[in-house]
Design a protein that fits this description.
The chain has about 270 residues and is an alpha/beta fold. The protein contains ten helices and ten strands. It is globular and about 45 Å long. The N and C termini lie far apart (about 35 Å).
Length: about 270
């Protein structure tokens, strides 16, 4: 099992070099960079987390090379000549380690960030991992972060793939999520994130009617012409070394995202 994991990590690292090399002929990608984070220093070894050391480095690099702004500001300024130096930090799902590991650094740096919270696990108070490494944020922690300037957005109630739900099921997911955020935080959710980053044709009109913005997974650059309900982001992963992170912040490592989409079978926007 260990040998298999080592081989898989080696293949992933080699593929990262191919993706990074494929980007070199291209000029910097236009528009703001909307970054996707999930877990920080969770210790689960999943690609959706980064270490605290990596996050500290990445935060410092972003501050040295541009400005960390809110999603609203990034969209307003997307047409500016140097909008590629605008960065938005988004955290999907709402894991407790975001509060314990990332929040102290973000608060010290006095930068805005956006948490897309899945309300079901918050209500349950526990994740699926027996060791508690994927435990959700509490409403108290979310209140604390919101009080420090964080934006809280909706990520549905149970995190389903919206492409597989009926109109009424989608409506119920959105309504329950928004109601819990309002009841516990006193906040009207204005921003939405599609679970798994997968756009749903059936959900789109409902989402567009409820929220000012909606974000997806990786995809085309954000420009002044971007539909605010079809915003693509840049996934930050465990395997992103300093070099790969910087490549993602410049030309985007677009080939990596195209391959990931093909492997996952996602044919959406």
């Amino acid at each position: 099992m260990a040998a298999s994991g080592t081989l898989k990590a080696g293949l992933r690292h080699a593929s990262k070099w191919v993706f990074a090399a494929a980007d070199f002929p291209f000029t910097p990608r236009p528009g703001p960079r909307i970054l996707i984070y999930h877990q920080i220093a969770a210790g689960m070894g999943r690609q959706m987390e980064v270490s605290r050391e990596a996050f500290e480095y990445q935060l410092g690099w972003l501050l040295d090379n541009g400005s960390i702004v809110t999603l609203d500001e990034a969209l307003e300024r997307a047409g500016e000549p140097e909008s590629h130096k605008l960065f938005v930090l988004t955290f999907d799902d709402g894991y407790r380690d975001v509060y314990e590991q990332a929040f102290p650094l973000l608060r010290e740096a006095e930068v805005p960030f956006l948490v897309y919270v899945t309300t079901g696990p918050v209500e349950a108070g526990r994740g699926e991992d027996e060791e508690g490494r994927d435990d959700p944020l509490s409403w108290q922690q979310l209140t604390s972060m919101a009080g420090a300037g964080a934006t809280i957005g909706s990520h549905t109630h149970t995190h389903p793939d919206l492409r597989r739900l009926s109109h009424s099921e989608i409506e119920r997911e959105l309504e329950e999520s928004d109601a819990l955020i309002m009841r516990n935080l006193g906040i009207k959710s204005e921003h939405f994130c599609y679970p798994y980053g997968y756009w749903s044709e059936a959900a789109h009109p409902l989402v567009a009617d409820r929220y000012r913005t909606a974000t997806l997974g990786g995809g085309p650059a954000v420009t002044a012409a971007t539909d605010p309900h079809l915003i693509h982001r840049v996934p930050i992963q465990l395997s992103d070394t300093k070099l790969f992170f910087k490549r993602k912040m410049t030309s985007g490592m677009v080939l990596e995202e195209k391959v990931r989409r093909r492997i996952s079978g996602y044919q959406g926007i």
